[in-house]
Amino acid sequence: MRIRRVMVAFCLASLAACTGVPTSGDVVKVSPANQARVERGVQVHPVAPQAGASPDMVLAGFLDAMASLEPGFDVARQYLTPSAAQSWDPRAEVTVFDGDTRSGLPGSTTAGLQARVVGRLDAQGHYTADHGRMLRQNFTMQQVQGEWRISNPPTGLLVSQYTLRHRFTPTTLWFFARGSQTLVPERIWLASNPASPLEAIQALLQGPSGWLAPSATSAIPVGTRLSVAAVGVSDGVAEVPLDDTVAQLPEPERSRAITQIAWTLQSFAEIRRVRVTVGGQQWGSELSMDGLPGGSGLPSMSEEEPLVVVKDVVGQLDDQGGFTPVAGAFGNQGWKDRPGRIAAAADGGLLAVVNRDGTRLLSATPGQDRPRERLRAKGLGRPAVTGSGQLWVASAGDGATALHRGQANGAMTTVPVPELAGSVVVNLAVSPDQTRMAVVLRRGDKTELGLLRIHGKTVDGYRPMPLRASQLVLDQVLDVGWTGQDELMVLAAQHPGARASGYLVSTDGAQVEPVGPAGDADLVELATRAQDQAAVVLLRSASGEVLRYGSPWRWRSLPSRVTSLTIPS
């Protein structure tokens, strides 16, 4: 479970001016079963163009009308010329910007908008973070019946980051890892707040994004639609009416499809059970939100203690800062080398160690006196051990970056990733469902965060994740770990030499939340364990102090002098 729950805020969103909110009229109760979109928060109603409005006022009104997310955008179209209103497709994409400057001169037939782009949403609501390029758009005005109207609207919508966070709703869709029973999440942003179960199911039926599709699949056949444009909820039971496309779907695919639907609807508090129908008849089993089938890949709560390196010995660090060496060679300096970076599997499984020089990767099980050398290479980074026992490590010998993978007791193989050419993998972390890999790359004198997808023997699809927290641009990324299926803890700073801090980051890069700690600690490393209640997060300072995460800006110091750390995963 993620550390941070997404909180749905019922807020007014406007780019430039406040709009009127009705204070009178009848209160009408609507049924979700008969309503394509049920609005339960305060609504922002766009204002139609005013007579005699100047070009800059027309632009301001148009931007406000887009931010309202009014169904159909009828009012927004009133700010356009007839031909532009007919051709404009507000659902094509969404460009998200942070801060803006508008220009318009008296007597001018244009109005301008200049802003820094922070991200984009595609037509399905998948967010892609942007490097902060500048958006500069001039809106040409034409006279229509004596009033100024825009003749060149943007592609899709232009909205502020504030509008994204307060008028859109982040929603998680669930798919299956290819060849596995493990569920894989994909986050989208729905253009309503709060979102409805109908919108979530319609998005699920479109399948995973093109980026995720090589790693994840849907049990719901391509082309499946709702037979009625509604997902009714009565007495806590959501009824999802599918068309005949799924009628002949055999087991176990039928159960997998229903499982995906139930997991996708679990974020709606009013839903306690899910029933799927085809042709008016129940299709498959009705599922309760308590004890849903399928697995999210997150382990259960564990009291397993972190492993650390103290004075070239690997051992356990207890909650009071006490140190106990592990049994075997790594705990008694009997392997004739010095440990640098470490990783470990849970429940006393595999322990992997890269030596201090970064030239050897070794592994051992608890009590094993002779560790096994798994790899010799230059520039080895921190290893990673997954829940299935796979061992990962990156090397950077002679300036050539490579990934290496092996099973617990098998040979290590090199996994080519041409997209990483010219960069160095500083740190890596594999997602709990083992379909994605978060990496910190060094390119020149800067570092960046990015995601790779894992499918079969292939690792590809590198997607950079520029980090912006409020007005801060985080150009120096030190470390990364998973705190949930779709959330990361990132250790980052504004620039080289600046003090680093912890940030919770959604895997689409849309949300970056600073969580501390406050103070002057020179933080250099983190370790995480994602689990089904609350993730465990540790930070290490250059002086060896270990800080344990409690909640945002609340960290507890564990007295120690540690040179490396990991949390068994």
What best-fitting shape do the alpha-carbon axes yield? Answer: globular
Structural class: mainly beta
- Share of helical residues: under 10%
Please tell me the overall pLDDT.
Answer: 89
Oligomer: single chain
Our Rg estimate from Cα atoms comes to 26 Å
Topology:
Blueprint: H1 55-67, H2 74-77, H3 82-87, E1 94-103, E2 110-121, E3 127-129, E4 134-144, E5 147-150, E6 157-160, H4 161-167, E7 169-177, E8 183-190, H5 197-204, E9 216-217, E10 232-234, E11 237-242, H6 253-265, E12 273-278, E13 281-282, E14 287-288, E15 307-310, E16 313-317, E17 323-325, E18 339-344, E19 351-355, E20 360-364, E21 372-376, E22 384-385, E23 391-395, E24 402-406, E25 413-415, E26 424-430, E27 436-443, E28 446-455, E29 458-464, E30 468-469, E31 472-473, E32 476-484, E33 487-493, E34 501-506, E35 512-516, E36 523-529, E37 536-541, E38 546-551, E39 554-558, E40 564-566
Parallel strand pairs: 1-6, 11-12
Antiparallel strand pairs: 1-2, 2-3, 2-4, 4-5, 7-8, 7-9, 10-11, 12-13, 12-14, 15-16, 15-40, 16-17, 18-19, 19-20, 20-21, 22-23, 23-24, 24-25, 26-27, 27-28, 28-29, 30-31, 32-33, 33-34, 34-35, 36-37, 37-38, 38-39
Helix pairs in contact: 5-6
